[in-house]
Amino acid sequence: MKNPAHACPNGAARADTGRTSDVRVLVVEDEQLLADAVATGLRREAMAVDVVYDGAAALERIGVNDYDVVVLDRDLPLVHGDDVCRRIVELGMPTRVLMLTASGDVSDRVEGLEIGADDYLPKPFAFSELTARVRALGRRTSVPLPPVLERAGIKLDPNRREVFRDGKEVQLAPKEFAVLEVLMRSEGAVVSAEQLLEKAWDENTDPFTNVVRVTVMTLRRKLGEPPVIVTVPGSGYRI
């Protein structure tokens, strides 16, 4: 029987302080309590997370949205997790699959990897391990960049979730950190509000909301003077 208690984030499970952002995750798990617990924990790690509870819904979301990582329960209703994984492989998507299962048998792990899963995690699991595996898979979908991003006097460490400006640490909320990382990874290119919504929030966010503008405004204030985030009228933002 699946035990969501092992996946719920808590003080002990969060001993690993490394975090990531700019990663979009789809959690596919038929036990809603477990799925929601995993999603809540990953969002606290500054990831954008969508959740579905069956394989058919997973295929629908995968066909619409670009995900860096899919956390995929193998035993799903409507469409089996194996078939969801096969579909991702058939489409040639860069999406990485972390397969979950209640079975810890070696044969099951081998079968899951042969189907096309990139990683395999038996239940019950520690949330810190799940986070580390999602973070590692998320890195594989991106062009390798320096561990610490530096631009305009700002240093951002995605793993330690630390930001410094001119040597002084800046405390940021998860979404502020995610937005800043997206802007810094763009290396001076303009990033639209829609792109920021896609990378830093999940699909439940209203596309007409002003949350991006408000977050950028707060981020500017926390980063201090002189301003480093430039608004490009009608296009977006850049650093």
From TrEMBL:
Residues 24-138 form the Response regulatory domain. The keyword Oxidoreductase does not apply. Residues 146-239 form the OmpR/PhoB-type domain. SMART domains: REC (SM00448), Trans_reg_C (SM00862). Residues 146-239 bind DNA. Pfam families: Response_reg, Trans_reg_C. Keywords: DNA-binding, Phosphoprotein. The modification 4-aspartylphosphate is found at residue 73. This is Response regulator transcription factor. It comes from Streptomyces similanensis. The lineage of its organism: Bacteria, Bacillati, Actinomycetota, Actinomycetes, Kitasatosporales.
